[in-house]
Design goal:
Helix 5 runs parallel beside helix 8 and helix 7 packs antiparallel against helix 8. It contains 10 helices and no strands. Helices cover about 65% and strands about 0% of the residues.
């Protein structure tokens, strides 16, 4: 008995989601450049034709992966827009690693992607840069809301601390490493508040 067109369509549903899930797992465990498109297709599992119908190039896949991470709340930046959390805690949340689905601890996916695509004109590097610029804009808005002095400079200091803490957490494989950055961020915030002398 042959496969009907309806059955064939059913088997193909969810291909994009399976590809992104496979890419996320492979990129996290072995890196972006070490992961080939054929490996992603096999892990999904989808045909290479299906993979390339959804993502014409590896850069397209990497950007979709990063967009998926950004929208899923699996990045440091995700807590900055949560209105159910007090402003100060949103900022200090930058120093808590998102819940890891893989081991070892991974750093910031945008920094990782920019490092693996060092050409500043590449689409992946450009997207990573946009996300890091968005991060500082969000923090600037939050420290402004708190009434901190010199919010632009303070925001840059806080995001440098957050990015550095995330990178060290990855290198040292210590998900709790952000506590050191948080302690420094608390001092910066305290000194920048209007009541500080």
């Amino acid at each position: 008995m042959g496969t009907t067109p309806t059955a064939s369509r059913r088997q193909g549903r969810g291909g994009r989601e399976r590809i992104l899930a496979a890419a996320a797992q492979l990129f996290a465990t072995q890196g972006i450049n070490a992961t080939g498109m054929e490996q992603v297709a096999a892990e999904a599992p989808v045909s290479k034709r299906t993979l390339y119908l959804h993502f014409r190039t590896k850069s397209d896949l990497v950007i979709a992966h990063l967009q998926d991470l950004a929208s899923s709340g699996a990045t440091l930046e995700s807590g900055l827009t949560r209105e159910d959390i007090p402003v100060r805690e949103r900022i200090l949340g930058l120093f808590s690693q998102p819940v890891a689905t893989t081991s070892p601890v991974r750093g910031c996916p945008f920094i990782d992607a920019a490092a693996e695509f060092p050409d500043v004109e590449s689409a992946v590097h450009s997207y990573a840069r946009e996300q890091k610029l968005r991060m500082v804009q969000l923090v600037t808005a939050l420290v402004t809301e708190l009434g901190c002095r010199d919010p632009g400079a303070l925001a840059e200091q806080l995001v440098i601390l957050a990015d550095g803490a995330a990178s060290r957490a990855m290198v040292l494989n210590d998900a709790d490493y952000g506590r050191h950055g948080r302690a420094a961020a608390e001092i910066l915030l305290e000194r920048a508040l209007p009541h500080a002398s």
